Amino acid sequence: MSPAETVAETLKSRRNILLLNHEAPDGDCLGSTLALARALWARGQRATVGSSDGVPEMYRFLPSNDRVVTALPAGEAFDTVVFMECSVPERAGRLGAHAAGVPLVVNIDHHVSNTGYGDLVLWDVDAAAVAEVVSPIVRALHPRLDADTATCLLTALMTDTGSFHYASVTPRSFQLAAELMAAGANPAGVFSQVYENRSAASVRLLGMALSRLVLSDDGRVAWTSVTQAMLRETGAAMEESEGIVGSLRAIRGIQVALLFKEEPEGIHVSLRGMGGVRAHVIAEALGGGGHAAAAGFTVKEPLDEVIRRTLAVVRLELGAAAS
């Protein structure tokens, strides 16, 4: 029995399962969690999908997204909690507290920064997206993959691979995409919903962020920031800043792209690494995590100080990548 089949067989016997997304969930996390939940629901099992930060507007086209909850009833007794893409349980945010005392903890991830916690761990750092890790579980739970579940998984796969152009993509990624298309998922439709469905405010925010672009003297690092003042001026929501860091990584010669976001809880930094630079190493040095191509962290310090500290760590990693 494969590890995925072991997880599936274990889940089949559970009576009340809580599936938790990480904070500020992306398409890979949400799509994978919803796909797993849909497989459980198809079997008639009781499962709740929780997200401390809800569902970002750009992913509200996902089938069953309306069943994602941001709060849980007091005293709800779960016998299993599944953490999706949470390197540590705390990554699930305030809803993670509901895992306390739950008999079975399942940890599903593909980030190298995962600490390996939990009773059942399905952790594959070679997977381009957590969708590649979850898909075999979904199939083992409910072999007949419907179009809506396939759409959840394809969205997860496309968003975490940059629509298949990141270096993390392998033949397995394309094989899974082919299976999902055969099941009824439409890649053109997913692409349109995710990348061609922006508000005018988000485009104004992108323009403002790009106007603040800074390049290092050697042209290997690019960074910009999004402040609360910028959100007020453009009318955009912070979740609409997703994708800005991707615009920076498109600059010729860039090895590190950074987006500094002024959030109520501190400065959140999204970073991308190219050309041998390990984004997760930079993030881990500053209290965060992720994988080699993409990572992030949050620091409660003034923006200028966070930029200064981050660039110091970036310089160290650039030196390591060159050696």
Explain what the structure shows.
It is a single chain. This protein has about 325 residues and is of the alpha/beta class. The chain folds into two domains: about 5-195, inorganic pyrophosphatase (n-terminal core), CATH 3.90.1640; about 200-320, Diaminopimelate Epimerase, Chain A, domain 1 (Roll), CATH 3.10.310. About 40% of the residues lie in helices and about 20% in strands. The strands form two sheets. It has a six-stranded parallel beta sheet with strand order 3-2-1-4-5-6, covered by helices on one side. The chain has a six-stranded mixed beta sheet with strand order 7-8-9-10-12-11, sandwiched between helices. Helix 1 packs across helix 3 and helix 2 (about 25-40) packs antiparallel against helix 4 (about 145-160).
Task: Give the structure's gist in a few sentences.
By secondary structure, this protein is α/β, with parallel strands linked by helices. The protein is built from eleven helices and twelve strands.
Keywords, please?
323 residues, alpha/beta, inorganic pyrophosphatase (n-terminal core), Diaminopimelate Epimerase, Chain A, domain 1, 6-stranded mixed beta sheet, 11 helices, 39% helix, globular
Tell me the CATH architecture of the largest domain: Alpha-Beta Complex
Q: How does the major sheet shape up?
A: 6 strands, parallel
CATH-assigned homologous superfamily of the largest domain: inorganic pyrophosphatase (n-terminal core)
Span between termini: 42 Å
CATH topology of the largest domain: inorganic pyrophosphatase (n-terminal core)
Strand content: 15-25%
Number of self-contained structural domains: 2
> Would you count the extended β strands for me?
12
Helix fraction by DSSP (H/I, runs of at least 4): 25-40%
Mean pLDDT, to the nearest integer, reads 96
Task: Quickly give the structural class.
Answer: alpha/beta
**Residue ranges: pLDDT <50 for 5 or more in a row?**
none
Main sheet strand line-up:
3-2-1-4-5-6
Encode the helix/strand succession as letters.
HEHEEEEEHHHHHEEHHEEHEEH
Radius of gyration: 19 Å
Number of helices: 11
Can you identify the CATH class of the largest domain? Alpha Beta
Overall body shape? globular
